[in-house]
Amino acid sequence: MRIALIQLEYADGESVVDRTSRVVELVRAQAGHDLVVLPELWSAGGFDYRAWPERTQTVDGPVVAAVAQAAREIGAVVHAGSIAEAPVDEPGPEGRGLWNTSVLLDPAGERVARYRKVHRFGFGNGEPRLMEAGEDVVVLDLPAPADGLRAGLSTCYDLRFPELYRAQVDQGAELFVIPAAWPAARVEAWRLLLRARAIEDQCFVLGCNTAGTHARTQMGGRSAVIDPRGEVLAEAGTGQEVLSVEIDPALVADFREQFPVLADRRLPPAKR
Ligand SMILES: O=C(O)CCC(=O)C(=O)O
């Protein structure tokens, strides 16, 4: 399976329309890949939370529609990264009506999964003040041409919460797709936790981060593809870059059989 992670660089001052056109071109340029992944909140601006209210989208809105068109053109499964999702007529439990929502598209441009970020980052500011928390664990069999692996979806700060990934493994996950806007200040934690999740859950990990500086926050880059043994198959630098990697889906089952750590879990499911 051929995978492309688009580590997008952006700065303040670029309109959502211009950024979307740029991203669509980058997705189109990945023809020949089976799965293409974009970062977290690239249209709204990962740390530009003051602008989120004017950059909201629905999962059928123009940003996702433009990426869906590119998915159709190249015949790939595309993880569109996440949007600041404000659905019509859904105020949410906290009355904010806004979620950090990832969307996975099949090669016909149809939405096959929606994941709302469960753990909100900001310690009382940003996401916890403006957004609702997602409540669902989302795991699915990837559609062709990226078939052969079961994928769990999560976003950025979720990476710090291993219990979410164990819950995905309990639902059969073999690959974690993690779009992010993770800052440079803590990029070593990002690199380490991506590998930790791969090793402890014996899964492929696709971590697609953001580059550049926006909203006075320098992003960390270092997107990576990691195999179920914890080997880093590819890692980006700190600028805009596309990581193109071939992975062998059979490695998950082979390695889990050869080194069956997950079979040695002791806690009863109710306490996990
Ligand atoms: O956990 C971190 O250090 C960064 C998380 C983050 O930036 C996010 O979730 O948007």
From TrEMBL:
A Pfam family per the record: CN_hydrolase
Residue stretches making up the CN hydrolase domain: 1-249
Keywords on record: Hydrolase
Gene3D superfamilies according to UniProt: Carbon-nitrogen hydrolase
Record InterPro entries: C-N_Hydrolase, C-N_Hydrolase_sf, UPF0012_CS
PANTHER family for the chain: DEAMINATED GLUTATHIONE AMIDASE, NITRILASE-RELATED
Protein name: Carbon-nitrogen family hydrolase
Species this chain originates from: Ornithinimicrobium faecis
